[in-house]
From TrEMBL:
The UniProt record lists the keyword Transport: no
Alphabetic keyword roster: Chromophore, FAD, Flavoprotein
A Pfam family per the record: FAD_binding_7
Source organism: Stenotrophomonas oahuensis
Family according to the record: Belongs to the DNA photolyase family.
SUPFAM superfamilies per record: Cryptochrome/photolyase FAD-binding domain (SSF48173), Cryptochrome/photolyase, N-terminal domain (SSF52425)
Cofactor names: (6R)-5,10-methylene-5,6,7,8-tetrahydrofolate; FAD
Superkingdom in the source lineage: Bacteria
Record protein name field: Deoxyribodipyrimidine photo-lyase
Domain Photolyase/cryptochrome alpha/beta residues, every copy: 1-130
Amino acid sequence: SSALVWFRRDLRLQDNPALHAALEAGHTPVPVYIHAPHEEGSWAPGEASNTWLHRSLAALDADLQARGSSLVLRQGDSQAELQALIDETGAEAVYWNRKYEPATQPRDATIKRELREQGIDAQSCNGSLMFEPWDLATQQGGPYKVFTPYWRNALTRLHIPAPLKLPDTLPAHDARSVSLAELKLTPTLNWDQQFWEHWQPGEAGAQEALTVFIDGALNGYRQQRDLPDRVGTSLLSPHLHFGEISPWQIVRRLEAERSAGRDADIDGYIRELGWREFSYHLLHHFPKTPEHNLNPRFDSFQWARDNPSQLAAWQQGRTGIPIVDAGLRELWATGYMHNRVRMLVASFLCKHMRQHWLHGARWFWDTLVDADLANNTMGWQWVAGTGADAAPYFRIFNPVTQAQKFDPNARYITRWVPELATLPVKARFAPWQTPDLLAQHAPSYPALPIVDLAAGRDAALTAYRRTGGE
Ligand code: FAD
């Protein structure tokens, strides 16, 4: 007998509960990926996600072929494609790992119910989270809105499961596949060319990134994770998003590294994975938050009128604030931006420019290789001050002093805004303050920021007070 193993955001073979369940039940697994972006509501994957997905699917197929199986690709409506494959293969079961986005959760529930009605063994598993979003509740029984008590509770329940065994060979199947090229996931213009100097999509690339992290940036992670001028973090976010690695695989490897000197860094890292868990908890319990403020008080907040030319300057890294421009250019070139800089560019957009956070969330959605509805929504609402447990609105980052603190030698700024390279280091944080030097060394860089920092801050605070803040 055979079983469909429906791959989605779990593009790996090791430690994959759905694949494991199919094998345990004695089925020949028919691995299938169905391309159905129209089922993701208004959050169909963006261009950077798609180009990553293309490579990740190729890697998954190669890994399956190395074991004697292969990946079946289809496109269309998920339910219809599953049904067609069941008819073609005579599959008796369908297994998958859960997804948690508000658009696809109800779809999956319907598919499970209808498959079961026809006697198909439909099972969903947890392949991407340490805690199901519904596993943890406050003492009153409701969802958490604050991270610290959420994580305190989570830590008391953290039981690391044993890894799942995967045989060296998998039984072959003869289901037909469309070609990967037919999914049209790669961009027509090669704007992603530079990406692949930084990334290796797929399960092997994810394991390699984890090893590099453990040998390198894990040492001193707690201090270095805030410094964008170096590799101070794991760079695992796109691999985690696509499920090329699971949090349990990471935690197991880290636990094996424990020693007195490393405990604080390991605990610090697992806590960051906790933020990812928390974002899925929030998305599950507050499914409208990808578009709507979690804190309704901000529904009356007066955002500035849409300003397409300012927004374009922000997107293209031409705001005249070097740290902000560096971040947005890093994003464009690599599909990634350092977490500290994400906070700074987001704060500048939502506060100094007073543009709605959704403008930023949408741009990130299209350009990040790690674009993730749960993490992105929480990140933007946190910075905008509209979310749970958010930075208070009136605490407005000053991008100049932040850059001086976290990028003290302007190395990050200089890497991404190289036209400032010949200015004295001190002048690279706020080059408009030394206009003669700027004109002489970097005539192509904006002479003034698109928003005056003090005026933008005051306008943001005034708008905030009108919502009844402080
Ligand atoms: P590490 O420091 O090595 O952390 C390890 C893992 O922990 C990450 O891969 C990630 O899965 C998780 N993690 C770390 N920090 C956070 C956090 N603040 N929130 C949630 N999970 C976290 N992350 C995404 O994965 N996708 C997004 O679309 C995304 N959008 C963001 C938007 C904004 C405005 C902000 C401020 C943050 C956003 N983040 C997002 C969170 C964070 O910036 C990235 O997860 C992190 O930079 C990824 O780099 P890393 O894997 O090297 O992180």
